Amino acid sequence: MTSWKEQLGERIPDRLGGEVDLFEGQIELKKEGKIDDKIFAETRLRRGVYGQRYDNGLRDDGTGQQPLRFPCGDLTKGPDTVWDAPGMMRIKIPFGKLSAEQLDTLAELAEEYSDSILHVTTRQDIQLHFVHIEDTPDMMRRLAAVGITTREACGNSVRNVTACEYAGVCSTQAFDVTPYANAITQFLLGHPDVQDFGRKFKIAFSGCEDNPCGLVTFHDLGAVAQVRDGKRGFRVVVGGGLGAVPVKAKVLAEFCPEEELLPLAQAVARVFARLGEKQSRARARIKFLVQKVGIDEFKELVAQERKTLRPDPRWTAFLDDLHVTDEQPVRDPGPIPSDAPASFQAWAKHNLRPQAQEGYYVAIVKMPLGDFTSTQSRTLSDLARQYTGDSIRCTVEQNLAFRWLSGADAIAFYQALDALNLAEAGAGTITDMTSCPGTDTCKLGISASRGLTGELRKRLEVIKNDLPPPVEALRIKASGCFNSCGQHHAADIGFTGVSRQVGGRKVPHFNLVLGGQWTQNAKSYGLVVGAVPSKNIPKAVELITAHYMENREGDESFQAFIARVGKKDFRKVLAPIQKPPSYEEDPSYYSDWGDPREYNIGDIGVGECAGEIVPFVEFGLQEAEQQLHDAQDALEAGQAATAAAGGFKAMVTAAKALVRHLDVQVKDDADDVVTNFKTHLHDTQLFHDPFAKGKFATYLLKMHADKSYENANDEIAHRTLDESQLFIEAAHSCYQRLTESAAAAAE
């Protein structure tokens, strides 16, 4: 039988082919036990090959009706088990651009090696789940033959470079950022200066300041197109990130001329590789380096690094042909027919956007939960060939954008989508939700973010025609854990998965985040206003939107409304639904969306020790949450120093509750609490969990040591409150583990 390597030999670029051959050899070495587990783990991650979770029910379409899971083993026990069960492959799609041929190849791979589902990520990648690692070299070769690589799609590397899906066809852009995103992708791919990072590095491009576009504010490196005196360049920012504690990027250069973009990026990479944290993964992102040295010192470090760089012709060679990424329409422009049916008009309201080029439109194909099938993929590629050419873009909101659609063809295109069951209206509205994989396939998932957004979407679709425009315009985003893969911090209404213990049983919850702003490149981030049982989240959305509509003034935006009334108002609105009923009253609260099993099967029952001690420790944790809420109110009132001090106080209160739960005598002063917390919970690793590995404990220890909460400004206060929220969540988790251990010991 002829191998794929032989069949595709002439089509695979030498560079990509050599990389795949090397990876295939490393797989063989791993089988023979000749390569270290940790080294191989990073190796496969840098090739886009992840382990995935199998302990939490079915992967479905959000309704529970479409089982897609393959029977297989467990990847949660360590690196060796990567051979026992399929994992996930992340496929790098620079700035989201796909050709029809590439989409066909992805469909084939999904059907032959995966579960026939293609998933669009929030970084414009495509992911295939349930992939066996031994199949990945052949998959990589087939991708390479159509110009796609998975190199550095994961791991401590430069991840997929993202850009606005409207770049080149937008009427508000300074200029088309696509060729620049392409140039930096090619320049940094495999570059020796980006191989020694402590963590991942994300880059984004935006063509304008005001629209969401590239969302540069939460990226490690972001570039916003500008023209000064007829000269092209970029406002470059650095050190942004969402993750557990979101940080807005700082301005590195107000105007970087286009010829300096690549050397500037290289200099930043070298500084990060040399000075970035390497021991503690919790603080290894570049945002922590920028915080540590300050933006002024960081600018100087980059400037000095730039002076030492050896000249590279690639820095400017791409400027000789900025049209290399241009797209050519395949149909003549034309107006949309005046007799368009009502169903088309309802779809076109949000899913069709006029291009800067008259007579052409961008059609957004809404992908529920970011998923579409191999069959749908093949038909979509045929539609592209017929109507739009090789101009498909994956979007950061997990949809597909088809550019260069003639208005004259718009109705026929819509009808073809309708036949595919992909003509759902409402792109960019409240029904167009973003979600990470959550507990479906992610080993870090705490709550079922996909299950939740699937349920919300289903309910909102029923009433979408009755939604008032201000509510319809809101964005909902959900993450299954603290890592913000669903970008919940930048949503109007965001959710992040947490768990709570009630009567000795765990209950899936979501922290509700309000105050984020998606527009203006994600201008601001929200804060947690409280935790709500997962099964009450639909009610929470109903209460929040009703409160907004009943009390808004004039045409007040959601962000302006929150700023005016304060988050305290929303906590009052949510209070009636924050406490779940007992298991005996309603056991449905003790399972998550999309998984009928009891949440976290194997949880302990109520033991005698828990009966005596639980009320006390829960009271302490509740007090800590209230102190954090008060601190959030202080920040909203403009009292940054008071807010930061309150956030630190809340952490101390939570730590004290845990220390006393261990029957350790502790004073009420912060010094004694922190000392005992370090001795009995941090140094013993009782506070450490598999997800965070102790990083949340360092928030308290570091803050106590450097007193960063004193005389805090708004940015430090905001960060302090985020860190406090994460510490308190970790304290809840620690308490659950302590209870489980006590019950196991008593058996």
What can you tell me about this protein's structure?
By secondary structure, the protein is an alpha+beta fold. The chain has four domains: 4-144, no CATH class; 177-321, Sulfite Reductase Hemoprotein, domain 1; 442-603, Sulfite Reductase Hemoprotein, domain 1 (2-Layer Sandwich), CATH 3.30.413; 604-747, Up-down Bundle (Four Helix Bundle (Hemerythrin (Met), subunit A)). A five-stranded antiparallel sheet has the order 1-2-5-4-13. The termini are far apart. Residues 56-82 and 601-615 have low confidence and may be disordered.
> How confident is the prediction overall: mean pLDDT?
88
Percent range for β-strand residues: 5-15%
Strand count:
20
The name of the CATH architecture of the largest domain is 2-Layer Sandwich
Question: What kind of assembly state do the chains in view correspond to?
Answer: single chain
* Overall geometric form: globular
End-to-end span in angstroms? 58 Å
Helix content: 40-55%
Largest sheet geometry: 5 strands, antiparallel
What structural class do helix, strand and pairing data support?
A: alpha+beta
Q: How many helical elements? A: 24
Would you state the CATH class of the largest domain?
Alpha Beta
Can you list the strand order of the major beta sheet?
1-2-5-4-13
What topology emerges from the helices and strands here?
Layout (H helix, E strand, L loop, with lengths): L3 H4 L6 H18 L5 H9 L3 E2 L36 E5 L5 E2 L1 H14 L3 E4 L5 E6 L4 H9 L17 E2 L14 H11 L14 E4 L14 E8 L2 E8 L11 E8 L3 H15 L10 H8 L1 H14 L5 H4 L24 H10 E3 L5 E6 L5 E3 H15 L3 E3 L5 E7 L3 H10 L14 E2 L13 H15 L5 H4 L3 E4 L13 E10 L2 E10 L4 H4 L4 E7 L3 H15 L6 H8 L1 H8 L33 H29 L3 H22 L8 H13 L12 H12 L7 H33 L1
Parallel strand pairs: 6-7, 7-8, 16-17, 17-18
Antiparallel strand pairs: 1-2, 2-5, 3-14, 4-5, 4-13, 8-9, 9-10, 11-12, 12-15, 14-15, 18-19, 19-20
Helix pairs in contact: 2-3, 2-5, 4-12, 6-7, 7-9, 8-9, 20-21, 20-24, 21-22, 21-24, 22-23, 23-24
